[in-house]
Amino acid sequence: MRILITGTTGYIAKRLALQLLEDKHELICCVRDMNRIPDEIEEHPLCSFIKVDFLKPEHAKIPEDIDAAYYLIHSMATDADDFEDLERQCALNFKNLVEVTNCKQVIYLSGIVNDDSLSKHLKSRLQVEETLKSNTYGLTTFRAGIIVGSGSASFEIIRDIVEKLPIMVTPKWLNTKTQPLGIRDVLTYLTGALGKKALYNKSYDIFGPEVLTYKEMLLQFAEVRGLKRYIYTLPVLTPKLSSYWLYFVTSTSFQLAQALVDSMKVEVIGKPSDINTHIAIEPMSYKTAVELAFQRIEQNSVISSWKDAVSSGRFKDQLSKHIELPQYGCFKDVRSRKIKDEEFTLNKIWSIGGRNGWYSFNGLWKLRGYVDKLFGGVGLRRGRTHDTYLEAGDPLDFWRVLFADKNEKRLLLFAEMKLPGEAWLEFKIVNDKLFQRAVFRPKGVWGRLYWYMVLPFHAFVFKGMIKALVEPK
């Protein structure tokens, strides 16, 4: 089949694309930024890419000869006031573009909605489902609750909490019930529905075999990790305080923390249906999903992460707009060193950050991360998706990868920390010399004051970093 995929760089779509290619389907992948095409599928002979922004569809061209499409556009991390209107408009534009093609089926992944007091995001999911309904194609909607897999937001947040806090004093919403579902089962539903006419114009709740509270999920996660944890819930923690608790304890952004707390107050129990007679599957238990996720992590083969989405940081536009270093109105710290072993230096550059640290004065980097968290930034807890591999769009502590090409011997990062301006960090090898450039474009007087405040630290932090990159110990 010839299939259109939206949200190509997202957590679900990236994994789904690999599965569909394995099943020999031909894919047309929609991306907003052609610089963010995932390396895993970029060169695949059955995969092509088109630039589409479904909020600005004027110049979008969807091929007519598609058989099916997946609608996987959503961001819980956005802080836009008109979030619901943007979601609805995006779905409407997608529908208008797809209705003039030969598409017979649209498959949409939504959230379970079975409570009168739905969160803002679940209301939006339901609104999108209504918007996508059409007389020209069949809509198949799968409604999932908590999705468990390596790199998923729920998995990484629970991991942060369990592995860092032996004793937890938590909000009362930890007693809310839910039905977690493994990411592998989600992909089985999404791929298994292709072309099944019996599933056209129908919606199904998909869920795992257990009804668990969030507290039980934390404790079972701890069991899998061989950890003893104690949890005490307090009724006095308000949604606002709960959001701050989640934000400071985990790697999530404050916007996502607010959205999660809003959603976690709502019980998410799936409605039984006959879906498992149409798609042969026995969903795995929560513990099995956690164990499989850690197998991926231990093999360093995490395909996608919720942090890959640019909305998990402070980006509001395309990466390509920042890919050239500015020349005017900027402060710069430029250093160069003769390299002794190019392969060693490239590998060190591509391994920077995350668990590997920044090679020089890591305590100061951590302190900067804590300060960023205090001011509502992303901090250092996001780490990196892979220990030794980078591609455009990847998160890297409080940076975002703009450009990463080992053949061109260049890595360019853009700061997503809270700053009175914009900052870039570039590593580039030219003629056996490593150039390390830190560029800061200040915003107003505060931006200039900030640069002069941190300038003394640059003298030894950046000097130590470039030295570590070129001198094997």
Automatic annotation (TrEMBL):
Superkingdom assignment: Bacteria
Q: Which stretches make up the NAD-dependent epimerase/dehydratase domain?
A: 3-108
Q: One Pfam family for this entry, by name?
A: Epimerase
Instruction: Return the protein name.
Output: SDR family oxidoreductase
